Amino acid sequence: MKAVIIGSGISGLTSAALLAQAGASVEVYEQNPNIGGVTAFARKNGYCWEQGPLLLGEFLPGERAYELLQSLGITLDTVREDRGIEMPDYSMWHPEHYAGPYWRRERLKELFPEEAKGIDAYYRFSDDMLWVQYYALRSEKTGRLIDKIYLFFAWQKVKKYAGLSAEQLMKRFFRRSEVRALFTGILADMCVAPSEFQGLGVPFFNIETAFDKRVPLTVKGRQIRGGYCYIRGGVEKLVEALAQKITDKGGTFHTGATVEKILVEDGKTTGIRLQDKNTIEADIVIASGGGREVFYDLVGSEYLTDEYREILEEYHPMDAVFMVHLGVDFDPLKYQKAALCYYYNTYDIEASVKKLRDGIYHEGYDGFLIYVPSAVSPKMAPPGCHAVTIYTICPDTLREGNWEKKKEAYADTLISLAETHLPGLTEHIQEKLIMTPVEYRNMMHLEKCSFGGNAPIMGVRNSPHVTPVKDLYFVGAQSESMGGVAGVMMGAKKAFDEILKRDV
Length: 504
Hints:
Blueprint: E1 2-6, H1 10-21, E2 25-30, E3 42-44, E4 47-49, E5 56-57, H2 64-71, E6 78-80, E7 84-86, E8 91-92, H3 103-111, H4 116-142, H5 145-156, H6 166-173, H7 177-184, E9 218-219, E10 222-223, E11 228-231, H8 236-248, E12 252-255, E13 259-265, E14 268-274, E15 279-281, E16 284-287, H9 291-299, H10 306-314, E17 320-328, E18 340-344, H11 349-357, E19 367-371, E20 386-394, H12 403-419, E21 429-435, H13 437-444, E22 472-474, H14 485-502
Parallel strand pairs: 1-2, 1-16, 2-12, 7-18, 16-22
Antiparallel strand pairs: 3-4, 5-11, 6-11, 7-8, 9-10, 13-14, 14-15, 17-20, 17-21, 18-19, 19-20
Helix pairs in contact: 1-8, 1-14, 3-4, 4-5
């Protein structure tokens, strides 16, 4: 079987590695000069930066991405870590001496004693959701009746919250916006408002292990919590490992190769046509990238069902990101207690997302994060120096002005805001690389920069891996798997499993 993979981001590489290991003849076509997509490093004069805060879930032993890599014979060098949060009026950094898995709960009750009852209720709900996830994954994996029974009883504890948005859920538990924003602030990263996001999902973006690496993953002998880690050497090590697996199994890469058309005959894909007009025949094609770009531009809407066209029209791509990558000659961890911290400057997440949708960039005044990848991977900076990224979400297109004319001023503002947390930052800058939505739009070959995939809005579907065109599969952050490194990897695995069924 010959397989053509369009795109060499993590979803494309995972798809190619799985197929190559299964004995398929694999060819990967990438429009950019290098493979990896947004998981490839940005580089300048001895500094390397990851494209965002890649503190990853699912990559520790026993977790899904780890097990998938193990099945491919890949073991990454990872280090378990956590992050901090600074709110406008209080902070959440793990205590120097371990205070148990619920120290954030107790700190919140000290800060907001009038909210104690709701805080306790939220944490019971959060734990119940972790058990629901545990038994859902276990029953899917084992198919055993006993696990399905446990899932049924676990679900009874939380089903009364089904159908609530994150905003409604937070109001169910808390009266004060200061507490609500602690749990919903992360939604801004996905460009989704609390009123749009499924409330049952809130605990999975607030697992206590993300804020204290000492919290155990297991409860009563079962691993119900996920852990978070960095890949030593940066996420590009994952790109390299997958690429090596593909080439070891006879797969080939074609960089700087733009696919102009996915060829379809009698409702079945037969291969691809490149921009240089060369035609590549294939038994199956796996495409990643933007859903509308793939299906409207490369395939053609005439080959889609009404249902699939409706999905393509309904989904809402996330907005963009603005990053200022810095090379500095001092240690930022003298002031920031971990490699990653989120700095929120507002409690009104709903209003922040609305401004974003209206093309208004907050310039960092609503919040930003500071990430120091070289704290874990020292070779990402010259000796005695560090790589630093200051990151915000932003509109793809500004309501007023354009990114090229405004990027230097926006970068200066962001550096100034970061300097309130990293004193003396400006005088220590050795290198600067500004990445706007325009650069990311071009890198990902999207009409609109959608850095993390599609906004996870309640009731809105995303494009399934199995498409209306026979032997054409769709993977990546704009597919049903949604975004995140582990998410797109597991989506690629799901698509691969569907391909195996094809030959049964």
